[in-house]
Design brief:
The chain has helices at residues 7-16, 21-45, 49-104. By secondary structure, the chain is mainly α. α1 (7-16) crosses α2. The longest helix is centred in the C-terminal third of the chain and has 56 residues, at 49-104. The radius of gyration is 39 Å and the shape is rod-shaped. It starts with 6 loop residues before the first helix and ends with a helix.
Length: 105
């Protein structure tokens, strides 16, 4: 990340304040280095558009996978309920038949 910084202006101000040309240039160079480092660290903390787009794509894929898993679980649950109800129905008919036979005798 580039920062707009007028080093010539800073060097001139430092020289006007009594710094030698070499000291003023060194000071300006250090300030530019520090600002660049800080700007780089700040930029690293923010997501770029491509980062956000990729994260959104990953979330959509994960949501799709979860949706598919939920459909499979729903189908499995329906099958188990149907088997349970069928089993209970058969037992109920057997119980009614036994009771009918007992009452008939």
């Amino acid at each position: 990340m580039a920062i707009s910084f007028d080093t010539l202006k800073v060097v001139e101000q430092l020289e006007n304040a009594g710094f030698s040309s070499q000291q003023a240039k060194a000071q300006a160079s250090v300030v530019v280095m520090i600002l660049s480092d800080v700007a780089e660290r700040v930029a690293d903390k923010f997501a770029t558009k491509s980062d956000s787009t990729q994260e959104l794509a990953n979330l959509r894929m994960e949501l799709n996978n979860l949706s598919q898993e939920a459909k499979v679980m729903n189908s499995d649950t329906k099958a188990k309920i149907i088997r349970w109800i069928g089993g209970v129905g058969v037992l109920q008919m057997a119980l009614i038949a036994v009771l009918a036979l007992k009452i008939g005798h």
